[in-house]
Amino acid sequence: MFADRAEIYIRSGKGGDGSVSFRRELFVAAGGPNGGDGGKGGDIIFEVDEGLNTLADYRFIRKYCAEDGENGGTNRCTGRNGADKILKVPEGTVIKEKETGKVITDMSHDNRREVILKGGRGGKGNQHYATATMQVPKYAQPGQDAQELNVILELKVIADVGLIGFPNVGKSTFLSRVTNARPKIANYHFTTLNPNLGVVDMENGNGFVIADIPGLIEGASEGIGLGHEFLRHVERTRVLIHVVDVASTEGRDPVEDIKTINAELAAYDTNLAKKPQIIAANKTDVMLPEEAEEAVSRLRDAFAGENIPVYSISAVSGKGVKELLYAVAELLKETKEEPIVFEREFSLDTLTLPNEPYTVEYDEKENMYVVEGPRIEKMLGYTNIDSEKGFEFFQNFLKNNGILDELEAMGIKDGDTVRMYGLQFDYYK
């Protein structure tokens, strides 16, 4: 079956960790820190491929991960950046966040390539943390974490004109006559299981793209049958040709058919029902001339108040088709051409938790625990420990950053001393 929807998991690459190392060479008694930086993680990139018209590839492989950045090395060597993961999709693919259903991006029109998940930034090596007071930093910055998402890919075809109507009313036959498309045609329901596209070439050069939207049924807006699979393709069209079996070869009333389909369009999206329509009264070739004229007149009377023109045609013989196409071309000229692009509704939070490094060590000579690093230094720089609120923030910082857990894992006991730069305090649980 035509694949116009898929659910996949995507993850960017994690940034490589910075390295902790020191220069160690003959005749260099106390070489400084020379830990290299970690490499950047790879991005997840979506790119439009003109040669694709389906999402079939994503129905079988559902997990896509970019490469992690390489950790930093010694001698100031920077780790290799992770390779990007490029996912090719057909034009018209809308990418949504799975949990909320909100649009992340619409890969159509000018949007041909977009970075959806950015790879993590590489961590800084300990060479960056040497200061006059801390000449031997034993810590480096960890690489930034990867980003991950479960997303839904939905293909919404891009066409000027959409053919709508109940199954087996002659849409595929009409498309094959007016374009170079060769859809599968047979006399049973749901022959068409995917939108067929074709180009109509007009004499004056005002050609247009037409899409055969698979047959709709009552309840399609509620997902009955293959309703949602079909209705999403109507959204990008500018004009609709409503094909109807005016001969009632299957016993249905053509007027009720049109009202039913229009009700389904409105139930799915009110904007769909507002699109300009032309009714193609098909299968007049199987009726007597006077019967065909009477049936078409009934359609014109029924929809005269809605300003929907009716054209009598035979998709098989071609009768009336040229007049219909000219009317469609004129309607397209009158219809304002605005690219239908689905606006972004979802974005990843670009704020990341601070990942500056720190170390927790036990100094046997001083008989105390030592906590150091840029994260600690920055916290102490903007926290007034002497105030009640400042001390409460200090306690929460130690707890939330896992520092208390590390001290306890090292065996700290009540009354032991902890030093953080110029601050010393006794530990009590």
Task: Walk me through the structure.
With 429 residues, the protein is α/β, with parallel strands linked by helices. 21% of the residues lie in helices and 21% in strands. The chain is built from 9 helices and 18 strands. It has helices at 171-178, 227-231, 254-268, 270-273, 289-303, 321-334, 374-381, 388-400, 403-409, and strands at 5-11, 44-48, 63-65, 85-89, 93-97, 103-107, 113-117, 148-155, 161-164, 196-200, 208-212, 239-245, 277-282, 310-312, 359-363, 368-372, 417-420, 423-426. Strands 10-11-9-12-13-14 form a 6-stranded mixed beta sheet, with helices on both faces. Strands 3-1-8-5-6 form a 5-stranded mixed beta sheet, with no helix packed on it. A hairpin with a 5-residue loop joins strand 5 (93-97) and strand 6 (103-107). The chain is elongated.
